Known about the structure:
The chain is 64% helix and 5% strand. The protein has helices at residues 10-57, 79-84; strands spanning 64-65, 69-70. It is mainly α. The protein is rod-shaped, with a radius of gyration of 35 Å. Residues 45-85 are annotated as: Disordered. Keywords: Coiled coil.
Amino acid sequence: MPFSSVVPSAAELEAHYHELSQERRRLTEMLEKTDRMMERVRRGLEDQRVSEQRQAVAVPLSGTRGEGRRESVWPVVSSESAARE
């Protein structure tokens, strides 16, 4: 396929320049949108790490006291005392 030695006209160059300008604007907008999205993801990762660290530091509650007897953390009312009230 031979090269053509046709030189584009000024109008064609201006049209091409305009197309390149539009493409550049589109790509810039896409890059800005990607940057914002990446920032949100980064903040989400940081929040998740902080949450995981808090869970790792949390002390588990023990439900046993004394001779291995389990005690309820909620007040327990027997049916006899509930009938009296």
